[in-house]
Design a protein that fits this description.
Layout lengths: L23 H10 L2 E8 L2 E8 L1 E3 L2 E7 L3 H7 L3 E14 L7 E12 L1 E3 L1 H15 L12 H5 L1 E7 L2 E7 L7 H5 L9 E4 L11 H5 L6 H4 L4
Antiparallel strand pairs: 1-2, 1-5, 3-4, 4-8, 5-6, 5-10, 6-9, 7-8
The structure holds flavin-adenine dinucleotide.
The site of flavin-adenine dinucleotide (FAD) has 15 residues, from β5, β6 and β9.
């Protein structure tokens, strides 16, 4: 059953609760802006956290990997997992190193994955490609049956989710704001953005003089 954002005991933000976001549309916007998630699993009592590409598909997230991957094998078996997407938006410079921090938007989803097969798996692969490489699906070769068989496609429902967003000015301790030395140092924040660079053609593309497709030229972050 889908719970409101941050509403369960496990997802209620306790540390700096004023940074908690309860709006599902903001959660979706963060998931749609991200490309990489960090997914955890525990093997023999040892937690591992692995980065994966992903896409949101309505009220679930999709990600795929090799059937040989330890992470994917464990998650396919239904192990509990934690799925985290973090967007880093800036560095916050307070007057003390202690109060310095970061601007971020972060979503955490808890639950167990299900394995997608058949048409659902094919549709999920297209959804992920459309999110990570918009425009590429029409042009790229489709997965061969052998490649598809070697791929585990997982879906995690966004049933139990939390969201925390940090923004704004540094939060200095009051004594630093009146201190004759520390009140005179620069404080504020430096925004950060993820950007695509100029596309670089591989040697065969260059040799054959294949122009960069418009859909790639349009990629912006
Ligand atoms: C880029 C980045 C850098 C950070 N750097 C630091 C750091 O250096 N030191 C530090 O102490 N904290 C840092 N944080 C915040 C950190 O993620 C935790 O929120 C914080 O440490 C409190 O953890 P807790 O387990 O006590 O939180 P609690 O509030 O007890 O967590 C309860 C529940 O709230 C939710 N929750 C907690 N944190 C987040 C989150 N970030 N995003 C979404 N849901 C969340 C989860 O569902 C969690 O189970 C950083 C966060 C980000 C995104």
């Amino acid at each position: 059953m889908t719970s409101p954002v941050g509403a369960t005991d496990r997802t209620s933000v306790r540390r700096f609760p004023e940074k908690a976001v309860k709006d599902r549309s903001e959660v979706n916007a963060i998931l749609d802006a991200g490309l990489v998630a960090h997914v955890s699993c525990v093997v023999d009592g040892q937690p591992f956290v692995m980065p994966v590409g992903y896409a949101r598909d309505g009220d679930r997230v999709l990600f795929h990997g090799s059937t040989a991957s330890r992470l994917f094998k464990n998650l396919a078996a239904g192990q509990a997992c934690c799925f985290t997407v973090t967007l880093l938006d800036g560095m916050v410079l307070a007057r003390s190193a202690f109060e310095s921090s970061m601007h971020y938007r972060c979503v955490i989803a808890l639950g167990s994955c299900v394995v997608l097969e058949g048409d659902e798996k094919e549709a999920a692969l297209i959804r992920i490609t459309d999110h990570l490489l918009p425009g590429r699906t029409d042009e790229a070769r489709k997965a061969a049956p052998k490649e598809s068989k070697a791929t585990l496609m997982l879906a995690l429902n966004l049933d139990e989710v939390s969201c925390k967003v940090s923004e704004g000015d540094p939060d200095d301790v009051p004594s630093d704001l009146t201190d004759p030395i520390y009140s005179n140092i620069w404080a504020g924040y430096v925004p950060m953005k993820e950007v695509f660079g100029e596309p670089v053609a591989d040697p065969m593309t260059t040799e054959k003089n294949i122009p960069t497709p418009d859909y790639i030229k349009k990629w912006k972050r």
